[in-house]
## 1
Amino acid sequence: MQIPSWLERCGRNAPDVVIVGALLIAGWKYTSGLRSIMDIGLTDETFYLTRGIYPDRVAELTGVPPVVEWGPLYGMWYSSLAKISPEPIALYYLNYAIMTILPPALLYTLLRRYRVSLPTSSFLAFFILITSANFSVWPKVNHFTLMILLVFLIVATIPKSWTLGFGILAFGCLLASYAHPEIYLAFVLCFAISVGLFWFRERTFLNATALVSLAVIAGAVGTYAGYPLSGKQRSFSAFCQHFAFNWQAWKKEYFLAPDTDCLQILQMNFGSVSGVGQALLRNPAVVMHHVVTNAINLPNALVSTFALHPTTTAAPNPLPTGFLPFNMRPIEACILLALVIGGLWLGRKTILSHLRVALRSESRYLIFVCPVCAVIILSCLLIYPAPHYVLILGTLLLAAVAILLDPFKGRQVRWSHAMVIALVIVAVAPNIVRLLGPGPHPQPTLSAIKSIRSLDITAKIHLLTDYYGYATYLPRNFSGLPSYYKDIPFDDFRRKYDINMILVDNFLTNDSRFRNDEEWKTFLQNYECVGFVRLLLPDDKGVENPHALYVDKSILPTNSQQEHEGTVAGANLMSDSGFEELTAMHDCFINGTRTADQAHTGTYSWKMTQQQWYPSLGFVGKYADRNDASRALRVRPGDKYYIEAWIYPKSTNVGTGSLSMTLTVRDSTGKQPEAYPHGYSGMPARGQWTKIGATVTVPDGYDLGWAGITVMTDVPMGDAFYIDDVMVVREQEN
């Protein structure tokens, strides 16, 4: 019996289906648990998310108008994905995983379509999955653009007509340009090539219909949504920021920050300009210096973005992941390139024979990607060879290398081979959480969002932050105001925009618009005078340098949960945790003082020395005045408080004994006796800093608390202890 042709085709494609399935499973394994170790990335990626789920509130939440340059198609993708996962935080992580998993599977399909062998296609797709160019590169709009290009490079192989092939690719570039506007130039090039091929070689009715339809679609979409390159805001902003990075590298000037002071740096070099063309006319020598610098850095960027480094260290320009990628030093990139070139030279005879055959039989892909790669290289030279540009360029170039130099070209692959390769892919695929090892893995943005949510504020909030995007993940009564809106003195700025909540981090503190404003400095020192309170928002995993949240008292709820400044769940209730300002309610009975003798971080710590009466240090609540309920921390039965401190027992201490760190609780009605729920009790090693911590649960019948540490009576007289970086946190409810 003759086997149906469709069944025969299914049999031939079955190994590829198995490999694609294995790549998808490996991708799921690789990204599983990423929410526990990766922070949320604000600005660009959050803008696209906002555009997808809150299209009518984009400017209100981010401070950025939803112009056509800012990827409307990627926003539509988020809108579709939100039907599966509507909650913004969950949606962010879901999209991040999908954008990591799908490109390798599409690349495998592309390679097989261009007749690359199954083993080579599998290896390259798996390499793309686990390389730092995939997971770490952000924003993910570039992965989305790459996916569109890969899909249409696959579809372009279907017709035999070159005119239709370039027409299909032109349509793909048109779509991709509404995610990545620079790709619109590739659309123009591909469309022009298609028209030229039609006019000089392939004049058919089908080709004419296809080209006219494409022109009508491009015109209609451009009229309705706008043309991706019609505005200058996005491209000029990208040029401005990346020129500032190059300028700082040339001048070795660090008094200005490239990310926040880029406009000032641009004005120093070009005067008042609003476009790349104007900058070129004003100072062509500096622009050419910028282009040459980018050209020199491009090979290193390609290698360091894709090559796996033996250690995983933080990037010099921190990405939202906080732990990837690494940055390969120039000498390492040169060594790796030299090894590749040396290998090609040694095998030049075999390689050249393969190359001649491949250039004759597989030229279609090379010709298709030329206009796309040319546009991306131009972007890298004019703007910067940043990882998100290099991702697309490098992936297309690697595919070209695989097509030209496939070592297994023409070899038959059996079912058993495909199954073995699939099993190896799944087995070898790492998990990003295990790769990073034990934490803590900082998630300051996510922690700040959770802590602000726990305030349960219902009033209208105008939130000032350095980076826009926080408001997208907060309740609907929040609107966002990015720091770059500030162009007047702070007090006028605060009143103009009715700012009633300010999230302060290191970036805002170092922003020259604020750093050099005396009114801003006065506000930070005397925020109570204008009706604000200060809440510390540390990362929920205990990392240092926490955010600080300044909130207008009038918008805080009046329930007992908010009666004491700083009692938001997840916030550090110790307002001066490092003893740098002496603003906290410290309460040391005997022989306690601030000192610069030792410090875990900063300049100062608190020193306690054992004397006749054992000394205690109150972290939160004035323990000496515990008969005064107004000086206490308001607690509730069942509340859990995490208390943490860094302790340095002096190396000359002679005894062991113990330190006790707990939450002393009282009943304001006097019915219950004072209680000391179990906390930390022990003695850290002498002569070194040790972090101690304990979670304390408030027992039934108590509503007042005082957190602190006590040197117990079994510690010998004269033994001294330094305390620093204290944290007292009411744990968030699940």
## 2
Amino acid sequence: MTQDTVRFRRVLHVVTHYRPELPGQEIFLERSSAVMQEIAPGTSHELLVTRTPRPARETAACTTLTRVTYLSPGEAGTWRRQMALALWLVANLHRYESVHFRAHADWYFVSYLLTRLAGRRLVLSAHGEDSLPVLIGKYPRSLRRLARHGFGLFRALVTSSPQLLQETRQVADEGRCHLIPSGITLPETTPGEGAGMREQLGIGAEDFVLVFVGELSTRRNPHFLVEAMPAILAEHPQAHLLLVGPAADPSEAQALRALVAREGLGERVHFLGEQRDLNPCLAASDLLVLAAHREPGAAVPEAMSHGLPVVARRLPGIDDGSVLDGETGFVFEDRVGYVAAVNCLLRDAEMRRRFGAAGRNLAAARFGMAGVAANYLRVYGTEPELPPARETGLGCTASILDTRFHTPVEIDAGAPPLLITMVDAEEAFDWSAPFSRDAQDVTSMGEQWRAHRIFERHGVVPLYLVDHPVAVQDAGRAPLRDLLRDGGCEIGAQLHPWVTPPFEESLGERNSYAGNLPVALEFAKARQLTGTLEDSFGEAPRIFRTGRFGAGPRTADILKALGYTADSSVTPCWPPEGMERPWLSARPYWADREQRLMEIPVSAALVGRLSHATALAPLVFHPRAQRSHASGVMSRLGLMERIRLSPEGMTIEEAKRLTRHMLAEGHRVFVLTYHSPSLVPGNTPYVRTREDLARFLGWLDEFYAFFASEARGRSGSWRELRYGPMAKTAMAAQ
């Protein structure tokens, strides 16, 4: 959105089972919610799980599912589970505009009736073999008419294949039936990904690889593919078959392994089990092969997006729109047709290339997640706020703000305190005036030598977090190049959206925070800034800060995509005005499960006898409380004050008090920060006169001396924390 006001909506997704560590409908829901968030930022998505027991340790899997609720602490009977669902909805339905049951979760229809009575839009998905007639047929004959009326409560019925749509229309009004295929995210190619998988499996670079993706069950029929392997090997003895999927039917999996052993195919058929990330398997393969008698799921478009031809059983009304016979692959009726199709493709590399290119184009046009997400939003009664163009391809597995994804960085308690100095290297602008793209004055960078006289005296090598105007003008970048060449500084990135291209947003308070921008635009600005800094300074920045500390829900995903390994966009106790923020600590933490992105917050804390009453702090420091001087009274009484480690707006005694408090609380990492324009009087509210500048520089000098003497600390680099001895995770593991 580019407006300064956004109307927020919530969609509740209800599933029976949720295993975020494994592929399946979970992956589609995560990917689609990420893209829906990109094209409709005002709509958030939450998940309710009815059958999977609550895990002992809940691990968040997707940043764009803002809440995951497990109904059951353990195994529960059907009646108890249905009652728990109904009671939960009674208590929580007021929070949602739409409720999407992604499986038939209430066999008594109570929760569906409650949702309709509450005036919420009710949606049901049918997939696999669960078309509406099939679901109705599972009820006793005497109850089927009632069940049919029960399904009439749904405002929309979503199917994923033409056959399911046709079956559903037999018992439901056509206007309620929607065909939305399982969307796929177009893969970003990673050099060597396929070769690495082949090497791991002992498959030669010139060998042919067939891949099956799906559960090992009679329904998916991998048995057929294994039985046909000897006929394929007779013409192509270097062929391999990868079986990728869970052993949903243990007896089928056991029979498959016995068949492989009996036919002597142990070196040619590879059981890979469930793979959350299919990209390496598909990148290592030449063909997708399927023999299912029912809907094959998302395997076909996923494989086509990787440029793989597909050989699949002819399933009228199911694979007609994906496997185009003679264009994106071949369809077969029996084993003879299957073997002939596979051998034909293995003989002809040009045909494989042609079919693969056609399949990739078809996957993008018909199954691209952006279009699928837009269609789901319309089912929820929401038009996309942004055009559903090609999705960003970003992950959704990291968050600077969502504490579900945070893991504290383990720091040696015996190490001396580390002080990191970060300077926001930016243009000067009128802090009281409206935001302007014309703010380009970077001449203050030529005055940084004043602080460097102090830095040199205390062994400080500052990190300059450089924004776009500084990076593109000689007046800004030349002084930094000199310092960088002499080892006098480090370079990171700082994003001021209003002066960083591309310029697509309106100017205003809301859009001055990068995290409030549409995700694609925030990504584009961060990518432009990163490339500009690399061009200007000869090295890609690896630490980032959002200007005005305005990180958003997808900022961490953007940083990971751009190769950043650290961020410093959190200033505890000072949440950006108008942005929802949790109360975060100044302790460094990992922002993702893989521990690739470290958050290094600015040092700030509550100090005083009530410093641990963090729930009270938002009230004490609310703008209204500050206007009534309540916060000042709390500070003077020594009850609660908030202090940030900065010479801007903080006295030296406050900085020392903060440091002593944080040391007593066990902090070993301290981040001091200020703005580069403050070294020129009149640029910022903190330094108006030459006397102010002298006090500012004196503050730095005194604090560095205090930190070395009383705190027994030392100045150093953020890299020491991210890669070096202060972090217990070895650098090689990164």
## 3
Amino acid sequence: MVNSQDELDKRILDTMLSGKGISPKLSDLARELSRPRSTIDLRVRLLEDEKIIEGYRPVVNWEKLGYEIEGYVGVSCSEESVPALLEAIKDCDCCLVESVFEVTTGMFDILAKCMFRNYEEIKELRKLIRVMDGVKEVEVCLLGPRHEGEQRRQMYRFELGAKILRSRPAAALSALRFRPRASSGALSSPIARRIHRRS
């Protein structure tokens, strides 16, 4: 049987993932769950102490800041050139680089999520990467409208549930209720427009 306190943790995380109750005093969260604010405040602080909740991030409207183009840059390169390329992409000033990943499977060795103000910035980033040693191919995928729904929330819940499982074994049954469905990923999305960059 799932412990009632572990069930409350699950409900807190689920509600916060839906975008409700993320505030300094947690009043909205307490009201949503029909629990005293002091109880919710204590439970959230415990979740933070156990690193199950690792932080709160703002949702930024990048278009308001002039970054109207969002996309992924995939780089195929030699293994020895990966460290230098990672640093070059992270430190580039021709666009806004949100994240850079080393890729373990697939056609790319590096994948970067970037925001661009215009198509000239895309050309500049591509040129910067192309001239570096070891680069074999650069491909840019520009994204269309975002369609975010329950599937993404379920995947987040599963990740958070796994953290509960590691830190509190008694919460295992609660955590394992969340099972992610297969995701095709941004690059294979039918809404992505692929721009193939030839050498």
